[in-house]
Amino acid sequence: MTEPGTPAGEPSLPPPPPPIPPEARTTGGPVPRSADEALEIGRNHFPPVGAPGGPTGLFVHEFDEGYLIHPGRPLPDDPSAPPAQPGGSNVVIAKEDGEVTFLPNFPPPEAVKLYHRLRGNRRG
Question: What residue spans carry the Low complexity bias annotation (predicted)?
Fold first, then answer.
């Protein structure tokens, strides 16, 4: 299907997604004063350490704007096999206002870069 004004034979783009409703946006929470406090806040967003399917540990990576909380996972029996449960996420807790942001399960340097891009786009 083509939109009016679109050359014949060229597909139209899908409509943009609806805006995120205000109640679904993450708001500020407790503001961590240290990596230890950030870890305690972050624990609420992961299954308990050692639970079936849960992380083997939670780790904190502090950076200029926040604290990245990322889970440790057990090594697979067969490293060449695809993961049994792909996906997962990291959590960033902002130093400024305690805002919690969920990011893909990227290594810390890449997750921090993505966070900077997202915050820059939101503020800009």
Answer: 1-11
